[in-house]
């Protein structure tokens, strides 16, 4: 009888390296000039980049086979986790086959006729507004939310109001014919967003250095503490743990976990396989390379 751990070993053993993506289609949320568009272009420079309106639309595009990959933001060094994306990761259980840590630099973009002193209102995605909260507060700007930083630039161009500006990238400002009125707005000069690549197919490339899992815990006192201790015993560095409530169940949670490591190590594979047998719910989400740019 094949156990869950045996099945997982077989899946991992049969995984191929991530193929060349020259003919791939990569989905992202937003429009041209968005941070997700920029990240998708860096991850897949020779692929067709396909925009979608919402994060879930990206997952659905991959699910339907419209796109080979989806590129999504999961965490910002200033504003924290993008909870909506983690919820979708845990719902769809696609594999993670790549990641990128990308520096995010915002400008204040207004109409070409505007001057900095004209601005009274700024528009951007809530995450961007959070990352620039100190700047907007200091200047007394009224803040307006929209679905995307590039959408903010587009809306500013369409509104044609001298007192309105977008918080967006310089690329988005240029794309929609705006003028940069101020630069480096983010409160944290090292402001970075982590993007992941999702796929229906598991790929594990040579040099993969990050493992992602999701699981639930048995209802036993100290279960999380003891489980995390097993990673510590192997000297594995946990880089992310996120708990999300299970829909329709009171006080039950799924956990998302990242750690530095490779399934090329027998100790890592053995731990993952044992957890797959022991945990009430468990999914191996991938072993991939995380780049920094």
Structural class: alpha/beta
Q: First CA to last CA: what distance?
A: 46 Å
Mean pLDDT: 94
Residue stretches low in confidence (pLDDT < 50, at least 5 long) are: none
Largest sheet: 7 strands, mixed
Q: What is the count of β-strands?
A: 16
Number of helices: 10
Task: Describe the fold and architecture.
Helix content is 32%, strand content 31%. The chain is built from ten helices and 16 strands. Helix 1 runs antiparallel to helix 10. It is of the alpha/beta class and 293 residues long. It is elongated and about 70 Å long. Strands 1, 2, 3, 4, 5, 11 and 16 form a seven-stranded mixed β-sheet that branches. A five-stranded mixed β-sheet has the order 8-7-9-6-10. Strands 13-14-12-15 form a four-stranded antiparallel β-sheet, with helices on both faces.
Summarize the structure.
By secondary structure, this protein is of the alpha/beta class.
């Amino acid at each position: 009888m094949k156990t869950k751990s045996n099945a997982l070993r077989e899946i991992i053993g049969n995984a191929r390296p991530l193929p060349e993506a020259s003919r791939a289609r990569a989905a992202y949320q937003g429009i041209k000039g968005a941070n997700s568009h920029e990240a998708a272009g860096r991850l897949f420079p020779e692929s067709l980049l396909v925009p979608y309106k919402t994060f879930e639309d990206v997952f659905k595009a991959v699910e339907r086979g419209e796109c080979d990959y989806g590129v999504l933001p999961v965490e910002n060094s200033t504003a924290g986790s993008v909870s909506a994306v983690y919820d979708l990761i845990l719902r769809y259980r696609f594999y993670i086959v790549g990641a990128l840590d990308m520096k995010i630099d915002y400008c204040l973009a207004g109409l070409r006729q505007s001057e900095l002193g004209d601005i009274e209102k700024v528009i951007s995605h809530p995450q961007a507004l959070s990352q620039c909260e100190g700047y907007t507060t200091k200047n007394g700007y009224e803040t307006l939310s929209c679905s995307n930083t590039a959408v903010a630039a587009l809306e500013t161009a369409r509104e044609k109001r001298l007192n309105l500006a977008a918080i967006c990238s310089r690329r988005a400002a240029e794309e929609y014919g705006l003028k940069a009125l101020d630069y480096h707005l983010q409160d944290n000069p090292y402001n970075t967003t982590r993007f992941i690549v999702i796929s229906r197919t598991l790929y594990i490339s040579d040099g993969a250095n990050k493992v992602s899992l999701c699981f639930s815990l048995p209802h036993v006192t100290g279960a999380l503490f003891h489980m995390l201790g097993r990673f510590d015993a192997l000297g594995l560095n946990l880089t992310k743990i996120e708990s999300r409530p299970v829909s329709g169940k009171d006080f039950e949670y799924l956990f998302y976990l990242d750690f530095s490591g490779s399934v090329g190590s027998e100790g890592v594979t053995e731990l993952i396989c044992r957890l797959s047998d022991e945990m009430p719910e468990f999914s191996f989400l991938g072993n991939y390379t995380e780049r920094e740019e």
